[in-house]
Amino acid sequence: MADSELKVQLLLTGNEIMSGDTVDSNSALIAQRLGEVGIGVYRKVTVGDDVALLQTELAAMVATADLVIVNGGLGPTIDDLTAEILAATAGVSLQEHPQAVAHLQQWCNKRNLELNAANFKQAMLPAGASIVDNPVGSAVGFEMVLGDCRVICTPGVPSELIAMMGDIVDTLAARLQRPPGRNILRLQTFGLGESTAQQIISDNVTDWPQEVDLGFRAGAPQMEIKLTIDNAAATAAQQQCRKTLEQLFGDHIIGEGAVTLPQSVLQLLRQRGASLTTAESCTGGLIASMLTRIPGSSDSFHAGFVTYSNAIKQSVLGVSEKTLSEHGAVSEEVVREMAGGALKRSAADYTIAVSGIAGPGGGTADKPVGTVWLAWGDREHIRTRCLCWPVERSLFQTMIAASALDNVRRLLLGIDEEPRYFAQRGAR
Q: Using omega within 30 degrees of 0 as the cis cutoff, is the peptide bond preceding 360 cis?
C-alpha cells in the first residue's frame, strides 16, 4: 500500500491528558516524525484510563485503520492499561515476555534498584506481541498485527517516545518500501511570523515550483520553514527554493535542521575561541539556562549573573546608585553598566544584559508592560536597544532571551542590518 493511502490513527491514553494536567505534545511528535517519511495521520483520539472506553475505541480503530499507534499506559501502576486492552482486543492472554523481563532487569541493575512486582507488570504483554526497544525507560514498547491493522504501543513519557521514534519510523518506512528521495529541508528562523514570511514570499516569488511543498511551523521563539519534496528528481528545485528563501530572509535564518539560537551562538563562539557572560534581570536567568542546557556549553559560557533587585545590581555588577535613581532599572544606562560589570567580573569576551518589565504589573505610561532594554557587545563596544513585547510573562521572557541571543549571533556573524523585529517591536 502506498504511503499516501495508508490510514493511520493515534490513540492517546491517560486521565492526566483529559484533565489538562499534562499537555499532549506526543501526538505532534509522532505526526511530525511519520510525516518525514510520507506517512500522514488522519485521525487521533484521546481517551482516559477507562477499560471499556479504551477497548471500544481501539476495536473501532483496528477495524478501519492500517496502522494504529497507541501512546501511553505502559507504566507500572494500576491505571496503565494498554497491554490489558490490546490483549482483550486481540482475544489473547497476558503473558510474561522474556525479552521484556531482561530489559527490566538490565534497567534496574543499571540504577541499583530491585525489580519489584510493580515494575514486573511492565513485562506482562499480550501473547504474540513483538518488542519495540525503549533505550531510555523501563517499559518496552510492543506491537501486534490484528487482522489487517498493525498496532504499535509506545510510552507516554516524552523523552522515551523521542528515543524510540527513530527506529519506529525507519522500520515502518522499510516495510512500506517508500519511494526513495523524499526529503524535508528545515530552516530555522527567528524574528519572522508566519503571515509576514508568507506575504514576503508571495510578493517576491511568482513561480514557486509545484514539486516543492512550502510549509511553516510557528513556535516560540523560533519559526520553522519546511521545503518538502517527494522524490530525488526535485532536489534541484528544493535547493533553488532554499536559495530564494536565503535571499529573502538571509539574516533571519539561524540554520538548518533542528538548530536553536543557543546552539548557534555557542558554535560561533567556539569557532572564534571566545566566550560569553550574561547579566539578567527580567529574564531571571533564562538566557543562561538556555545556553547551559547544551552539552559542552562550558567551553564558551563563563558566567551568568541574575541581578533582579537594584541592590544586587549595585553590589554584584557595580551599577551605580546614581544611575538607578536617575534613570530607573529599565533604562539604557543601567543595562550598559550591567553589561560592563559582567565583563569586568568574568573572563568572557562578549556580554548580554537585559532589564525590563515582564508584567502583568509594574508598567507606567513611559515604560509600559513589555518594555525591555537589551545590551550586547564586547569589551570595545556595547550596543543597546529598547523593545516592547507586550505579551504574557513567560512568553515575554522567552522572546527577550531569544532576542538577546539573536543579537549576539548577528554580532558574531558581522551582520550590520537590523532585524525586522527592531522596527516591529521598537519602543514608542
A: yes
3-176 is a CATH 3.40.930.10 domain:
no
Q: Where are the beta strands (DSSP E) in 288-425?
A: 301-306, 350-356, 371-378, 382-388
Query: Is residue 307 within 8 Å of residue 277, measured between CB atoms?
Result: no
Is 159's pLDDT higher than 90?
yes
pTM over 0.70: yes
- pLDDT, tens digit, for every residue of 173-193? 888 765 555 788 999 999 998
Quick one: pLDDT at residue 3?
45
CATH of domain 183-256: 3.30.70.2860
Of the candidate CATH numbers 2.60.120.10, 2.30.30.100, 1.10.260.40, 3.90.950.20, the domain formed by 261-425 belongs to: 3.90.950.20
Q: What is the pLDDT of residues 84-104, one digit of tens each?
A: 999 999 999 999 999 999 999
* DSSP SS3 for 264: helix
Residues 6+ apart with CB under 8 A from 281: 306, 307, 308, 313, 329, 338, 354, 355, 356
Which grid coordinates belong to 163? 528515543
